Amino acid sequence: MTIQDVAKAEKVATQFFGPILRRAYLLPDLLERFLLWRVAPSATLTQIIEAT
Q1: CB contact burial 19-33 (16+ within 10 A = b; e otherwise)
Q2: How far apart are CA 42 and CA 38, in angstroms?
Q3: Cystine design at 26: which of 5, 30, 32, 52 (Cβ 3.0–4.6 Å)?
Q4: Which residue in 28, 27, 8 sits closest to 18, CA to CA?
């Protein structure tokens, strides 16, 4: 089974599914770092609106 087969079966574009599938093989601690340890933006949307 190829990425193209899975993408077709799930009715999504290969360009969408390929990167997701590759992330599935990362080490768990790397996944956690990518997904859970994101740095919050330095300014909130409210602060940006108030500044304009």
Answers
A1: eeeeeeeeeeeeeee
A2: 12
A3: 30
A4: 8
Q: Is the model more confident about 33 or about 4?
A: 4
pLDDT at residue number 4: 85
Per the CB < 8 A criterion, the answer to whether 42 and 32 are in contact is no
**Residues 16, 7: contact at Cβ < 8 Å?**
yes
pLDDT in tens, 8-27: 888 888 888 777 777 777 77
**Does the pTM exceed 0.85?**
no
C-alpha to C-alpha distance for 26 and 37, rounded to whole angstroms: 16
